[in-house]
């Protein structure tokens, strides 16, 4: 419906008065890319049991394999954020998609290796995937800040963030079937090819707001009037200089941002349990086959997806009804994190159906409360939106290192997942405390620029 919309700069005509809706096409692209992003992260969890048996790994070694992505992902966050501010979201994100997909594909080619060499190769390639994926979520937040006004930003952020659940719904059964029918190597090959195709589509369909051939002036004006940063890639201090640690120091000294960052760590700890150990929990603790676990894992993911969308809708609805930005963002986050703690109940039930239902409730809560990226779009200094998002993602994804390893040690030393569920569930409580008592008023940070 946007094909005939006049481009920016067209004369005012009746057609020009009707705002185009290109921003929703951009949001659809963010959703699809993020779905593939999380599916690529989850490949090892689906292939994990077969890999563990084939390569002779114990639970601790598998935990380290799971964490390989996290180490590099965290290390590369700040450089990735600076690259976004320096060269723009479209260029950097497009290159990121292509490179991580190539490294994913390469994980399926290590069949000629065995034992320690194979483990080392998987670790190294997972490490490189983490480097390549580092700009992804800061870019998502940056693009939403550019394309959406504040009153649509919560829902838009919730939609791209909910892609992590869609990844499990769509790809967990597919990847489980591939492992069951062909072997674990083929999972990486299939996902790598899909990612390379997505990199091509990104190049074709995504542009900056004022450069998109299908956007009209009315839509640009609507976005700008609502606080959208439509010129985010056309100006800014970061485009004229290298990384500035003084800006990072300013962000770290801000109490509101530190509360958001710590809470993001806790929220992501829940995420990384579900995309790493959860399928293995179903196989080893609940006696399911890998094929069944792949399909069962999609049930909580559907609930997480619904919770994620609902959290954004509730937040934007509260905002439209006159609630402050702080109330509109905090209410879904706190309620969701309290619900996520319900996973501990699984330690006291035996029926598989009840376990799945409880995990579905916990995952719904996690989705409901996963509004960290909307909050980042609301608070990031406009001059360094990429760097600010990268810093939040650095904190958030420290849990991609700690959670898989901690769960591996707990399971390895106790022979049970009970302690692991308590460990993961407590992160929901800490996130609540952060938003209730540390964050305070949610507002955009004003950066003190150096002359």
Automatic annotation (TrEMBL):
Matches recorded under PROSITE patterns: MFS
Family: Belongs to the major facilitator superfamily. Phthalate permease family.
Gene Ontology molecular-function annotations: transmembrane transporter activity
Domain of life, source organism: Bacteria
Name the record gives this protein: MFS transporter
Matching InterPro entries: MFS, MFS_dom, MFS_Na/Anion_cotransporter, MFS_trans_sf, Sugar_P_transporter
Source organism (scientific name): Trinickia symbiotica
NCBIfam families listed in its UniProt record: 2A0114
Annotated TM spans: 21-39, 59-76, 97-125, 187-206, 259-283, 295-319, 331-349, 355-375, 387-411, 417-438
A Pfam short name: MFS_1
Subcellular location(s) per record: Cell membrane
């Amino acid at each position: 419906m946007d094909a005939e919309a006049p481009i920016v700069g067209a004369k005012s005509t009746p057609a020009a008065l009707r705002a185009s809706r290109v921003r929703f096409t951009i949001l659809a692209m963010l959703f699809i890319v993020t779905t593939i992003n999380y599916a690529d992260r989850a490949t090892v969890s689906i292939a994990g049991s077969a890999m563990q048996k084939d390569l002779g790994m114990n639970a601790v070694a598998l935990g380290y394999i799971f964490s390989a992505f996290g180490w590099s992902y965290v290390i590369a966050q700040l450089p990735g954020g600076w690259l976004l501010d320096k060269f723009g979201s479209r260029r950097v994100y497009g290159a990121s998609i292509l490179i991580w997909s190539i490294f994913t594909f390469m994980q399926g080619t290590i069949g000629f290796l065995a034992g320690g060499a194979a483990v080392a190769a998987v670790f190294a390639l997972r490490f490189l995937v983490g480097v390549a994926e580092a700009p992804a979520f800061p870019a998502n937040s940056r693009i939403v800040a550019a394309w959406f006004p504040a009153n649509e930003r919560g829902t838009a952020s919730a939609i791209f963030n909910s892609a992590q659940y869609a990844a499990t719904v769509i790809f967990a059964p597919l990847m489980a079937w591939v492992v069951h029918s062909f072997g674990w190597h083929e999972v990486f090959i299939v996902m790598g090819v899909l990612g390379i195709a997505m990199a091509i589509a990104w190049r074709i369909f995504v542009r900056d707001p004022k450069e998109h051939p299908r956007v009209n002036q009315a839509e640009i004006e609507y976005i700008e009037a609502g606080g959208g940063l439509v010129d985010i890639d056309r100006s800014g201090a970061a485009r004229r200089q290298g990384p500035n640690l003084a800006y990072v120091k300013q962000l770290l000294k801000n109490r509101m941002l530190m509360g958001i960052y710590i809470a993001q760590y806790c929220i992501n700890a829940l995420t990384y349990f579900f995309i790493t150990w959860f399928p293995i929990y179903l196989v080893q603790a609940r006696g399911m086959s890998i094929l069944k676990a792949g399909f069962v894992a999609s049930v909580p993911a559907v609930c997480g997806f619904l919770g994620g969308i609902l959290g954004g809708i509730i937040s934007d609805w509260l905002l439209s009804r006159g609630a402050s930005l702080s109330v509109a963002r905090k209410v879904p986050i706190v309620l969701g994190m309290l619900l996520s703690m319900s996973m501990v109940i699984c330690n006291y039930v035996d029926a598989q159906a009840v376990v799945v239902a409880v995990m579905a409730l916990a995952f719904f809560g996690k989705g409901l409360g996963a509004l960290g990226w909307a909050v980042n779009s609301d608070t990031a200094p406009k001059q360094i939106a990429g760097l600010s998002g990268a810093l939040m993602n650095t904190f958030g994804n420290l849990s991609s290192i700690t959670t898989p390893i901690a769960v591996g040690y707990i399971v390895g030393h106790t022979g049970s997942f009970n302690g692991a569920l308590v460990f993961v569930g407590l992160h929901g409580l800490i996130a609540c405390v952060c938003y209730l008592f540390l964050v305070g008023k949610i507002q955009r940070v004003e950066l003190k620029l150096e002359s």
